Amino acid sequence: MDQPPRPALTWRGTAVSRRSLLLGLGAVTAFLAIDLGAVAYANNVIGDRFTRQAIIDRFQRIFGLHPGFRRNHAKGVAVSGRFDSTGAGRELSSAKVFAAGTSPVIGRFSLGGGNPTAPDNPATVRGLGLAIGFPGGQQWRTAMVNLPVFPVNSPEAFYDQLLASAPDPATGKPDPDAMAAFLAKYPATAAATKILKEHPPTSGFTDSTFSSLNTFLFVTDSGTTPVRWVFVPRQQALPAGKGDNALFDALVRQLKSGPVSWDLHLVVGTAEDPIDSTLPWPADRRVVTAGTLTLTTIETEAQGNARDVNFDPLVLPDGIEPSDDPLLAARSAVYAASYRLRAGEPKSPSAITVDEVAP
Ligand code: HEM
Fold first, then answer.
1. How confident is the model at residue 44 (pLDDT cuts 50, 70, 90)?
2. Cβ(129) to ligand 1 under 6 A?
3. Across the chain, what does the average pLDDT equal?
4. Boundaries of domain holding 136
5. Is 358 a member of any domain?
6. Which CATH number do you get for residue 104?
7. 2 lies in some domain
8. 155 in ligand 1 pocket by Cβ < 6 Å?
9. Is residue 201 in some structural domain?
10. Given Cys at both, which of 52, 143, 155, 173 links 333, Cβ 3.0 to 4.6 Å?
11. Structural domain count, the chain
């Protein structure tokens, strides 16, 4: 049955349809259109207790309201390049992106948290969002971080973690009692925290390994395989200098001096491997090297680049399907809510101005 038309939102005086919201305005021109049916503007209710608005409200309570910016991973910079597929990934997935050949990519490096002007801190989680477009009118979007496991395994734990890890105004640090109570409530997070402490971050964005963490199902005519993917860097990072944008500035300098690359490893899971993203898979799982991501340009966030893309992890091509990980549906719902808000708000300049960084 046809859905009734939804009211258009207005953004910079332009009528913004639901379709362009979900595609990202800039991406519409750069990429082939995707099948909107593949995009779940998921239920407002998340898990048993939440609406996506409750999670958005909590972000805003912790980080303040910054109109026009993402409610999480607010500080970022836009990049573009290509994905060169080896063809080896077709063993696991029929997605056309894995056929031998080259696909265009737009992406965004970010730091976690909802403050778009927060000083760079090497301990802050680093993000990489990618949208890979390829023939057939499909896209593969992913938003990854530089962690070996995710600290929580449910939207409820994510919501509680936001409050437990918020700095106490009196000390500037999280309240140790609140953190202890949170970890006692979520033993999976306590276990993941130990793993995270054993894997300190690398020195910069370009030597970071970016992982899906969530499990996905790779599908061919002959079957379905659980897969987690990892983008493994092929270079060292330039040393970070000083200043509030030290990590981003080093990234900008490096990209101004030449391309940077990551190999895409598809980690082949088994039926016994956990979907729970706080749990690592055994280290000896087989890896298929599906190709290489090469980023060639970097731009200040602006209309027409990755600023206006929603790196929804459920925008998947035929041949990749979500697993039952409850984080995935929650992410899709909250990213869409964040996107709808920021697309309708006035824009302020990004803290990272690419032209101002000396090569
Ligand atoms: C329930 C769990 C999670 C919630 C509620 C959440 C929430 C959010 C929100 C609201 C945004 C901003 C979206 C936008 O306005 O475009 C965001 C961005 C992002 N998230 Fe999450 N997130 C969750 C889990 C994860 C996980 C598991 C990962 C990585 C594996 C991740 C990586 C990222 C990245 C890289 C971005 C920035 C993407 C960009 O540059 O647009 N998040 N998240």
1. low
2. yes
3. 89
4. 9-352
5. no
6. 2.40.180.10
7. no
8. yes
9. yes
10. 52
11. 1
Taking a C-beta distance cutoff of 8 angstroms, is the pair 268, 227 a contact?
Answer: yes
Which of the four pLDDT bands, split at 50, 70 and 90, describes residue 43?
low
Select which of 66, 73, 199, 265 is catalytic.
73
Give the atom of ligand 1 at the shortest distance from the alpha carbon of 59. Answer: 10
66 in active site: no
pLDDT value at 336 more than 60: yes
